[in-house]
Structures are given as structure tokens and as C-alpha cells.
UniProtKB/TrEMBL annotation:
<dbReference type="Pfam" id="PF07687">
    <property type="entry name" value="M20_dimer"/>
</dbReference>
<dbReference type="GO" id="GO:0046872">
    <property type="term" value="F:metal ion binding"/>
</dbReference>
<dbReference type="GO" id="GO:0009014">
    <property type="term" value="F:succinyl-diaminopimelate desuccinylase activity"/>
</dbReference>
<comment type="similarity">
    <text>Belongs to the peptidase M20A family.</text>
</comment>
<dbReference type="Pfam" id="PF01546">
    <property type="entry name" value="Peptidase_M20"/>
</dbReference>
<dbReference type="InterPro" id="IPR002933">
    <property type="entry name" value="Peptidase_M20"/>
</dbReference>
<keyword id="KW-0479">Metal-binding</keyword>
<protein>
    <submittedName>
        <fullName>Succinyl-diaminopimelate desuccinylase</fullName>
        <ecNumber>3.5.1.18</ecNumber>
    </submittedName>
</protein>
<keyword id="KW-0170">Cobalt</keyword>
<feature type="domain" description="Peptidase M20 dimerisation">
    <location>
        <begin position="198"/>
        <end position="319"/>
    </location>
</feature>
<dbReference type="InterPro" id="IPR036264">
    <property type="entry name" value="Bact_exopeptidase_dim_dom"/>
</dbReference>
<keyword id="KW-0862">Zinc</keyword>
<keyword id="KW-0378">Hydrolase</keyword>
<dbReference type="InterPro" id="IPR050072">
    <property type="entry name" value="Peptidase_M20A"/>
</dbReference>
<dbReference type="InterPro" id="IPR010182">
    <property type="entry name" value="ArgE/DapE"/>
</dbReference>
<dbReference type="InterPro" id="IPR011650">
    <property type="entry name" value="Peptidase_M20_dimer"/>
</dbReference>
Length: 426
């Protein structure tokens, strides 16, 4: 039997282990924010990977954004050395999941198996991918014990809130230095026959409009900051949103709607703060003198970040000049440049050939509408040979009744195992 056939059969034989592992990971509720149970899931992975012969390190991102004594940002990196020198393939998965939300018909942290699917928050995004990478690595080591190089598996914090307590911190500390890691696969849920080459850019900012407080029965004696913010939104509706819809990219972004520039109004807060749930009184009658809005601008590789920022500032300056009493502040919260790995990169080719062997067709190449931890591996780690590939359907991420297909996980693990075989000379 050919080694590649033996490897895919070895992974299939571990189906029940793959299901149980995924269920165990889902049942550790690692909600972010605030960042719960990171140490618990890292300890679980530590025990599992030590049994598989990996050397493990638990790393707290001390001082990183989000890290605190109440919610420490723990990460794990595990490494298995081969029989002789060679390249290192690193599988990176984030361990955090988003809030549960409403509308579930299953226990969000139950890991229920039904109709060939595992349900739970994080099932597809991305604990199913993490489990698949572990099974792929363990099966590869069992099938090809004389492999060259090294395999690394990491579970990292805070991807859902920017990744600064996870991959960014590790990259700053040299864990993704191209001298020690040569290939990175991030098992994000982009569908089992698609290779994700990168992502669009993001620019987050907070806009604050100013007014003057006064008695609510005499609003003419004050200046309503919320009305000024309404003028900002109206200008966006009339001018900015139509302009963004005309900006298109050659990047293979999915879904189709994300091939244009987009802007999301993330939140608006104006006037009197909301009181505690047990407060039974009425609000006080005041004209709001402050209103804040957070915007989430996603931009294309063809766009310049300076021009992206100028679009918003120019809109606000136009309002300042033409609207009586209008004044504002703007603060940048977050910026990430677009990233896209070349299709002829070694890790792309190895995964593409694995997809072709498992599915009997060529892989699709896509770009993610939102960012993920490739941004830190690329910009901080200076490692370009990085992709996202994993089981799960992107549209299910962050939704009620999130699930991952068991067959999808097995097949994705087989693709990962075949990529390991090619890249590490098994």
C-alpha cells in the first residue's frame, strides 16, 4: 500500500477520536470577551499533546491587550521533532469563541452529535479545525516516523478580538521567525476544498460628536450631539456608502458581496448612560452633549490606508464647515493591512495537491472578508508562507446552532496529513 493511502486510512481510523476530541474542546467554554477558561483548554491540549510525544510550552501573554490576573491570556505551543533536519510546519488555531447569542436549539457548549454534525459554539470556528490538525499530525507521525523537520501545533488566545494576546504576542517573541518555522496552516473554516490566501484590510475608528447639555424641555438652549451624529450617518448614506459600493477588487474574496469595500457602523452611544437592570426610575431630561460611534471599514488590497482614513476625515470636515455648531473628534482604534500569499508558495501547493487527491478536483482559492491571525504572522513574524485551510462552513461562524460536519473534519485532516507528507519528506 502506498504511504499516502496508508496515511489517509490512518486518519479515517481515528474518526471516533476526532469526534471525541472536538466535543471535549467545545465543552470548555472559552468565551471572548472576557477570555474565559484559556488556561483550562491549554492544560487539556498540553496533556493530549504530551501523550503524542510533543514538547509543549504554555505561554502567558503578560502585558498584552486584554491580559489581566482575572483573565490571563494563555497560549500553548507544542513541537514534535522529526528523525532528521528539515522544515517546520506549524498549525495555528485560536482557542477562543465569541458570545453565544440567542436562537440556539442545542446546548452551545454540549458538543451534541446529530446527523453527522457536531454542534456547539466554536464547532466550526475553529475547534473542529484544531482537532483535525491534531489528528492529522498524530496520524502522520504514526505513518511516517522517519519524517524530516518538525511539526508544531499551537492554540492561541484572542483571535476573535484582534489576536494581540495570542499570535501577535508570540510573533513579537519570535515564535513565527522564518528561521524556525517555514510553513503555517491556520485551520479556519473556509470550506474543506478551498485554500484561503489572505484577507481584506480593516480600519476601525471612533467618531465623537460634541454638543452642549441643557434641560430636555428647552433643547434650544443646548446642542444635541446625537443630532450631529445623525448628520454624520446621513452623509455616509448619501455619499460614502454609494462610493464604497463602486470599489471592486481582483482578490478572490468570498462571499461575492465582500469583493467591494464595506463600512459597518459597529455601535452608537449617546446621551445618558444606561442604568443598571434593577433601576426603576426614569431618565433625567437632558440634551446629550456627547455621542460616540465606532466604525468598521474593510478595504481592498488596491486601496491605500491613507486614502481610507481620509475619506472619513474629509466627510467630517465637510460637515464642520457646513453645519452650525458641528464639532468632532476621531480616534483610530485598529488597523490591519490586506494580506495575500502567492498561489505558488510551497504551502499552497502542498495543500492544493492534498485537496486534489482527497476530493478528486482542484482546490478553489479564496480570500477572507474579515481578518484572522495571518495578519500577525505576515506583518510581525515576517513569514509569508501562510494560508488558512480547514473544515467548516464560513457562513456558520458566530451563528446560532453552529456546527461542523464530521466527514468534513476527517477529509480536511487527510488533506493536512498529505500536506505534511509532501512538506516534511515522509
Amino acid at each position: 500500500m502506498r504511504i499516502k493511502d496508508r496515511l489517509t486510512r490512518e486518519i479515517e481510523a481515528r474518526r471516533d477520536d476526532l469526534v471525541a476530541l472536538t466535543q471535549d474542546l467545545i465543552r470548555i467554554p472559552t468565551r471572548n470577551p472576557p477570555g474565559e477558561n484559556y488556561r483550562e483548554i491549554c492544560d487539556y491540549l498540553d496533556r493530549r499533546l504530551l501523550r503524542a510525544g510533543f514538547h509543549t510550552e504554555l505561554i502567558r501573554a503578560t502585558g498584552a491587550i486584554g491580559d489581566s490576573d482575572r483573565h490571563p491570556r494563555w497560549n500553548i505551543v507544542a513541537r514534535r521533532e522529526g528523525a532528521r533536519p528539515g522544515a517546520c510546519v506549524h498549525f495555528n488555531s485560536h482557542i477562543d469563541v465569541v458570545e453565544v447569542g440567542h436562537g440556539w436549539t442545542t446546548d452551545p457548549f454540549g458538543g451534541e452529535v446529530r446527523d453527522g454534525r457536531i454542534y456547539g459554539r466554536g464547532a466550526c470556528d475553529m475547534k473542529g479545525g484544531l482537532a483535525a490538525s491534531i489528528i492529522a499530525a498524530e496520524a502522520f507521525v504514526a505513518s511516517c516516523p522517519d519524517f524530516a523537520g518538525a511539526i508544531e501545533i499551537s492554540g492561541t488566545a484572542d483571535e476573535e478580538s484582534g489576536g494581540f494576546g495570542g499570535v501577535a504576542y508570540l510573533a513579537e517573541k519570535g515564535w513565527f521567525n522564518p528561521e524556525r518555522v517555514q510553513h503555517v496552516i491556520i485551520p479556519e473554516p473556509l470550506n474543506k476544498d478551498r485554500i484561503c490566501l489572505g484577507h481584506r484590510g480593516v480600519w476601525w475608528a471612533e467618531i465623537e460628536t460634541h454638543g452642549e447639555i441643557a434641560h430636555g424641555s428647552m433643547p434650544f438652549l443646548g446642542d444635541c450631539a446625537v443630532r450631529h451624529m445623525g448628520a454624520v450617518i446621513d452623509a455616509m448614506e448619501q455619499n460614502l456608502f454609494p462610493a464604497l459600493a463602486q470599489k471592486r477588487t481582483d482578490m478572490p474574496v468570498v462571499p461575492e458581496g465582500a469583493r467591494q469595500s464595506t463600512l459597518n457602523i459597529n455601535s452608537i452611544h449617546g446621551g445618558e448612560p444606561e442604568q443598571a437592570a434593577d433601576y426603576t426610575g426614569l431618565p433625567s431630561p437632558c440634551v446629550p452633549d456627547r455621542c460616540r460611534m465606532v466604525i468598521d471599514r474593510r478595504f481592498l488590497i488596491e486601496e491605500d490606508i491613507g486614502a481610507v482614513e481620509s475619506e472619513i476625515r474629509d466627510l467630517l470636515e465637510t460637515l464642520r464647515k457646513g453645519r452650525p455648531g458641528f464639532d468632532y473628534e476621531i480616534r483610530e482604534l485598529h488597523r490591519v493591512l490586506p494580506s495575500m500569499t502567492e498561489k505558488d508558495a510551497p504551502v499552497v501547493g502542498a495543500v492544493a495537491r492534498g485537496v486534489a487527491q482527497v476530493f478528486g478536483r482542484e482546490a478553489d482559492y479564496v480570500v477572507s472578508p474579515g481578518t484572522y491571525d495571518q495578519k500577525h504572522i505576515d506583518r510581525i513574524g515576517r513569514l509569508k508562507n501562510c494560508i488558512a485551510y480547514g473544515p467548516g462552513i464560513l457562513d456558520l461562524a458566530h451563528k446560532p446552532d453552529e456546527y461542523v460536519g464530521i466527514d468534513d473534519m476527517v477529509q480536511s485532516a487527510q488533506v493536512m496529513g498529505l500536506a505534511l507528507h509532501e512538506l516534511l519528506g515522509g
